[in-house]
Amino acid sequence: MFRIATNSCLSGSARRSIQSKSRRIFSTGGKPEAPANSAAKEAPPAPASTAPPPAAQAPPSARDSIKYAKTTAGTGAPDGAAGGAGAQFSTRGPVTWPALGLVAIAAGSAVAYYRIERERRLENAMGKIVSSESGWSPNPELLARRQYVRTKWGWFPKEDAFGGAGKPAIGGPWSLVDLDGNLVTNKNFEGKWTLLYFGFARCPDICPSEMVKVGKVMDTLKKDHPDLAKNIQPIFVSIDPARDSLKALREFAKDFHPSYVFLTGAPQQVQAMAKKYRVYMSKADETDDGDYLVDHSIVIYFHDETGDVADCFTQSMRPSDVVEKVVERMTFVPSY
Question: Which residues of this UniProt protein bind Cu cation (predicted)?
Answer without folding.
Answer: 203, 207, 296
